[in-house]
Amino acid sequence: MSEHRIYSTAFAKVYPMYVQKAERKGRTQAEVDQVIQWLTGYDAAGLQRVLDEGWDFRRFFADAPALNPNAPLITGVVCGIRVEDIEDPLMQKLRWLDKLVDELAKGKAMEKILRR
Asked: What superkingdom does the record give (predicted)?
């Protein structure tokens, strides 16, 4: 099976798209950062380092301080695929992040997005 191109894509290239998607729906960059930090365990400085140093998605998730133990509670469809059915662990983490940003953009309450 061939490697997905997204794995070697710089997180910093996709991050502005997450922010734009949220902002178009009245959410903020701070809220995007909050869901990213919730999922990955990065703090603000760590997230900024990822962006500044141009880490790809593979490294972004491999070096994440602590994947949230509630991440498996993220379910639903992203790009026509149920995130809970994705077998590739890295692709599943990517889709979890996509799903969190989607929920943010759809106006879901932060408490629900963060599976509290």
From this structure: Bacteria
